[in-house]
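Morning, I've got a small favour to ask if you have a moment. It would help a lot if you went through both lines with me. Thanks so much in advance, here it is.

***
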Amino acid sequence: MKLRIKGNSLRLRLGPTEVERLLAAGRIEETIRFAPEQSATLTYALELTASDQDVSLHYEPCEVTVLLSRVQASRWAEGEQVTIAGEVGVGQGNLELLIEKDFACIDRDDSENVDTFPNPKAGAVC
C-alpha cells in the first residue's frame, strides 16, 4: 500500500493483492520508521467497517487508520471505479481522503509495475 500526503489530503493506493487481503482480513497496514526509537514510527492502515459511512478516519499518536465501509469496498474492488473519495472535518477545514487502485506506470518497465492493476491508458497513442 502506498501513502501520499499532500497539503490536507491523504491518499492510499492499493495493488490487486492488497485489495484481496483487505477484503479477506478486513485490515491492511504498513509501518514506517523514522529513527531508532520505538516511538519514531507511523503506522497507516485501511480498515473495513460495518458502518454506512463510506469513508472516515481514526487518528491516534503514531497511527492513522482510514475506515471504509465493507459494502463500498466490495463494490470498488469488483467494479471499474478507480477512486473512493471522502472528507472528514478536522476542526479547521477538511482532510480529503482518497483510496485508489494502483495502476501500472506506462513509462516504467515491468519490474517496477509488480502487483498493479493494468493501466487503462496502456497502448494509447498521443
User: Anything to note?
Assistant: Residues 2-106 form a domain with the Gyrase A; domain 2 fold (CATH 3.30.1360).
